[in-house]
Amino acid sequence: MAGLTSSTIGRKYAMALSAMFLLIFLVMHMSTNMTSVFSEDAFNNASHFMGYNPAVQYLLQPVLMIAVIFHFVMGFVLEVKNNKARPVKYANNNGAANSSWMSRNMIISGAVVLAFLALHFYDFYFPEMNYKYIQGNTPDETRYWAELHHKFHDIWRVLLYVVAFVLLGLHLAHGFQSSFQSIGARHPKYTPIIKAFGNWYSILIPLGFIFIAIFHFVTQ
Ligand code: HEM
């Protein structure tokens, strides 16, 4: 692991692997939350399973937390190192002509997603940890949907979430294909397919999250 993070190429590779793991998490997280739109019971069952299954709690969740922290810390490290290596901006770097807004501003969209995660943990994750491990309540399989639904009664929270999901989409629009490039997956035939898939992914996943938030707001 130390070897993987001690060179720029190694760092980009490790960054890409953590990104890919998070891309898979987002599909699972969006699908689980989408059940709340269709069925209260389905969402309650899925949440209860995730919340009390030992493999999810003691294996997947810690790995997810490490991947999230690693991805953000390494993102900032790479940004700082890139800026140090290039103290004077290239004369020919005239913005949009050479690269997209998304690729030049990954650090900004990433920081917005990080700020969103702080709010999101305050909303869901910390209360859940408090409920289970600090208050030590007995499991209640029926509470999850109502808790989720109640969170979205506040228009400001919904708006903040929606803005974060749009920025998440911009982050993914560059990040998806960039993670494949960083692990060396380049091929004249497959790269356009990866890019097209990435574009759809970065539109549909945030749209799914936006739909869930707005659904719970308008059905209060
Ligand atoms: C409308 C959109 C969303 C809803 C309704 C939602 C809902 C939830 C809920 C209910 C939990 C608590 C799970 C538990 O521990 O019992 C949670 C946790 C979490 N969410 Fe979200 N989420 C949304 C969007 C997102 C997005 C866009 C991201 C990432 C950018 C994200 C990342 C996480 C993470 C990392 C956790 C903690 C790990 C976990 O407990 O699974 N969520 N979310």
Descriptive terms for the model:
single chain; 220 residues; mainly alpha; 9 helices; 0% strand; binds protoporphyrin IX containing FE; transmembrane helix; Succinate dehydrogenase / fumarate reductase cytochrome b subunit
In short:
InterPro entries: Cytochrome_b-558, SQR/QFR_C/D. With 220 residues, the protein is mainly alpha-helical.
Description:
There is one protein chain. 81% of the residues lie in helices and 0% in strands. With 220 residues, the protein is an all-alpha fold. The chain has a domain at 21-53 and 106-218. The longest helix is centred in the N-terminal third of the chain and has 32 residues, at 54-85. The mean pLDDT is 92. The site of protoporphyrin IX containing FE (HEM) has 17 residues, from helix 2, helix 3, helix 4, helix 6 and helix 9. Protoporphyrin IX containing FE (HEM) binds next to helix 2, helix 3, helix 4, helix 6 and helix 9. This is Succinate dehydrogenase / fumarate reductase cytochrome b subunit. Keywords: Membrane, Transmembrane, Transmembrane helix.
The amount of beta strand, in percent, is: under 5%
| Multimeric state | single chain
Shape verdict = globular
Number of strands: 0
Write out the distinct hetero groups bound to the structure: protoporphyrin IX containing FE
- Distance between the first and last residues' Cα: 48 Å
List the helices and strands and how they pair.
Blueprint: H1 2-6, H2 8-38, H3 40-52, H4 54-85, H5 101-104, H6 106-134, H7 144-151, H8 155-182, H9 190-218
The structure holds protoporphyrin IX containing FE.
Protoporphyrin IX containing FE (HEM) binds at residues 29, 33, 47, 51, 61, 64, 68, 113, 120, 124-125, 128, 148, 168, 209, 212-213.
